[in-house]
Amino acid sequence: MFLDVFLDALLDCLKELPFLFAAFLIIEAVEHRISDKMNRALAGADGSGPLVGALLGCVPQCGFSIMAANLYAGGVISLATLMSVFLSTSDEAVIILLAEPGHMKDIGLLVATKVCIGVAAGYLLLLIGKLARGRVPFLRAAHKEPGHICDHCGCHEAHSGILKPALKHTGEVMLFLFIFTLGLNLLLEVIGMENVTRIFLADTVFQPFFAALIGLIPNCAASVILTRLYLAHVISFGSAVAGLCASAGLGLIVLFRINRDRREDVVITVLLLLLSVLAGVLLQQFM
Predict the structure, then answer these.
(1) What total number of domains does the chain contain?
(2) Domain for residue 155, yes or no?
(3) Of 86, 103, 132, 192, which is most buried, counting CB atoms within 10 Å of its CB?
(4) How confident is the model at residue 225 (pLDDT cuts 50, 70, 90)?
């Protein structure tokens, strides 16, 4: 049984390998060509920051969440814009869905939903910031001009081109994909779908919270796990959104690394978690 499950998981992942590599290659090319311009647009968005941030954040991978963390720590963008980027970031989820035939509708729905959540949360924070009138420091408006972007993230090596990062990302995602697919298939084989869905709190309001906690894992493994669980019908669409909204990739790690106010970092993380859970619960109730 284990050998059959192992081979099935391996074959499933190998089928997705060319699609994953092609998608990462395209994303790397886009990031190398226009990421600096897009981040300048983010830094200069001002009142439209949440809208611009949510639209840029939905680009696959966590590159823009990393850059947004840099810009926020440097006072170039507001918390509202940072939160919009974090909430709309899907890390590797969109790329994994692209590698699965017949899931274009899921991609459009997921991206549109997360952009709407990012925009709504961003403008809500802008409104709260105006009402607070400067009494809450981390709700401050942007107050500095952008300097050199992405100094601290280490997301690209100098002169590495697009092939090396694409191969690296493909290898990492394939590893997580295989390990989790193997584990999930074994669970389904041994205890059955009904018991697996019960383990993941199916049909309860706690599932979005559980998914959001997974999403906080600062690694592409989180988005791989959540996307696989959604494709296997183990978690609901609302729970998948909650988890992927909380999944800011390496953005949170960069924030903790370069933003010196630890209390502020913790508050931002808790706020990200709460907004993600709220969005997931509402979607689960009404969809």
Answers:
(1) 1
(2) no
(3) 86
(4) confident
**Residue 198 structural domain:** 2-150+160-286
Instruction: Using the predicted structure, report yes or no on whether residue 174 has a pLDDT greater than 90.
Output: no
Angle CA 13–18–20, to nearest 5: 75
Start-to-end C-alpha separation, the chain: 37
In a domain? residue 40: yes
**Is the pLDDT score of 178 beyond 60?**
yes
Residue 279 lies in a domain: yes
